[in-house]
Amino acid sequence: MNFDMVHDVQKIYRKLLNCMARPGVVANISQESNKLNIASGLSNSLLALTFTVCDAEVSFNILGEHEESIIRKVHNLTYAQSEKTETADYIIVKFLAERGKIATAFGIAKKGTFIDPHTAATFIIEVETLGLGPSLKLTGPGIKDSVSVEISGSEAWLAARTEANAEFPLGIDVILVDLQGNIMCLPRTTHTCNLEVK
């Protein structure tokens, strides 16, 4: 069965909205993304999310290996325009992208304005695993009291995200996807506290 650019994208979008409204909640998109059979340089799950958020009206950049060839492929598949990190709407971060590069990207990416905070960039970051666990405590809107989650590799960008989101309502939303197709969201309003560094 092939990936359906309408129905499968809609299913992923609904899961994404639920995760954004309820930070720390984990959904899985592997049933949809495993239908993809496109050589893009991105994992199926990361590509499926890219299809979900990218179209001709938005811009993007890629962080990770083979950036230029992936940028061309994503543009051809989605018609989204590639731009520098400073001006891109979506920053797509491949698994094992350089830590320093990710942290720098958080520092220079769009954080919106006080009049239009929604013009900030969104990061889509591929990690090894994520789920419930002892590493990170989340608090904020959409969370009753707090929730503890496990996000492998978060030490590569967590401090940079906290700094980027220091001046509410400015800040950066983060969509996480792991190698098993699990997704989780960290809106700019979500506060994080390290419980155990992995």
TrEMBL record:
One GO BP annotation is: organic phosphonate metabolic process
Say yes or no: keyword Methyltransferase present.
Answer: no
Q: Does the keyword Transferase apply?
A: yes
* Enzyme nomenclature, EC number: 2.7.8.37
Q: Enzyme group, top EC level? A: transferase
According to the UniProt entry, its GO molecular function terms are: alpha-D-ribose 1-methylphosphonate 5-triphosphate synthase activity
Q: Which UniProt keywords are given for this protein, alphabetically ordered? A: Transferase
**Name this polypeptide is given:** Alpha-D-ribose 1-methylphosphonate 5-triphosphate synthase subunit PhnH
Biological source species: bioreactor metagenome
